[in-house]
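The pair is quoted verbatim below.
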Amino acid sequence: MFEMIKKLFYPIIAILDFITKYFKTIVFLTIIYFVVSSSDDSALNNSNQEQANLQKIELMGPILNIEKVMEDIYEAKRNKNIKGVLLIVNSPGGAVAPSVELAYAIKELAQIKPVVAYASGVMASGSYYASIWANKIIANPGAMIGSIGVIFQGTNLEELMEKIGVKTQTVKAGRYKESGTPTREWASYEKEELEKVIKDTYSMFVSDVANARKLKVEDHEIYADAHIFTSGQAKKVGLVDEVTTLTYAKEEIEKLSGVDKAVWKKEDKFEKFIDKIINEAVSNFSVNLFGSLKAY
């Protein structure tokens, strides 16, 4: 009983846990950052007079809040000094809509300047979708690739609600308005409605992968169908171009970009750290609180 209640209130617990674990650290680091930022900025400007011509963009963790990644893509697209982009991916996927948004943003970027996507750990489902339009996809030998599929999950809390004495009251218009509700078992017609959405989204996913990777849609059971591949297996079915290291991926984008001397755009490490822990907290909260259509 205690475990079920704990699971029900997990989102609140997760937020409180995040505040407890990281708040003091964030405050301390913020103070340190502002104390040393002026001297660090001037030192950086003095030591790095050359303009950056290559940029790294990281896609890490569940794909839910993509604002930062989209800003990076837009900046790389707008900045005429940037001649090529290395997209480093380590993500299990995420919500369908932001995954598709990223995919088409990368497609537009790759039409202007070369993009190499590198699977550093996991490039699966939505994060693979986001990478398909890169000029080349390179995978670490130990990476996991694929899981091209779509899922909708929800929780049936009916028995728990009965035990703790909670009942729902619903006023609705539209037969399918409660499809996916967590308060009871789904009716067969509701499951069919959700399956219709799942199948259509999956068809879109497969079609885009086939177009981007020059594969046949009718062969989707070979390279899609939610199969999970090692890097070597992914190369055999056409999902990646090379199985090698990050060093090779950097050399490849340098070659495709045609730069004489690679100068990588500097990252703000403090900002990156703050973004990481906040995004992790938001992602954990969203994943556990809401049932939604996911490309996981």
